[in-house]
Amino acid sequence: MPFYEYKCKDCGCNFEQLVSISEASKKQACPHCGKKNTEKQLSVFAAKSSATSFTAPAGGGFT
Ligand SMILES: [Zn+2]
């Protein structure tokens, strides 16, 4: 199962949760405040796994 990163809109914290694909789109309870006012962020691991075909500029090339 992949890790997904969530952001809690109530307390503003970010947390990672190990969830199945079918559960990923559901709201996860925040470990800090226990509320489910959370939003799924882009998966860090998914971004890493596709890094071979997509490489983001590391040094801020748009500045
Ligand atoms: Zn919270």
Structure report:
By secondary structure, this protein is of the alpha+beta class. The protein has a domain at 1-29. It has two helices and three strands. It has helices spanning 21-24, 44-49, and strands at residues 3-8, 14-18, 38-40. It has a three-stranded antiparallel beta sheet with strand order 2-1-3, with no helix packed on it. It is flat.
Quick description:
This protein is α+β, with helices and mostly antiparallel strands and 63 residues long. It has helices at 21-24, 44-49, and strands spanning 3-8, 14-18, 38-40. The protein is 16% helix and 22% strand.
Secondary-structure element pattern, one letter each: EEHEH
Strand fraction: 15-25%
Largest sheet properties: 3 strands, antiparallel
* End-to-end separation: 37 Å
What Rg do the Cα atoms give?
Answer: 14 Å
Count every helix, treating DSSP H or I runs of 4 or more residues as helices.
Answer: 2
- Total DSSP E strands: 3
Which class best fits the helix and strand makeup?
alpha+beta
Bound molecules: zinc ion
Helix content: 10-25%
The coarse overall form would be flat
Walk across the major sheet and give the strand order: 2-1-3
Catalogue the unreliable spans.
none
User: What integer is the average pLDDT?
Assistant: 80
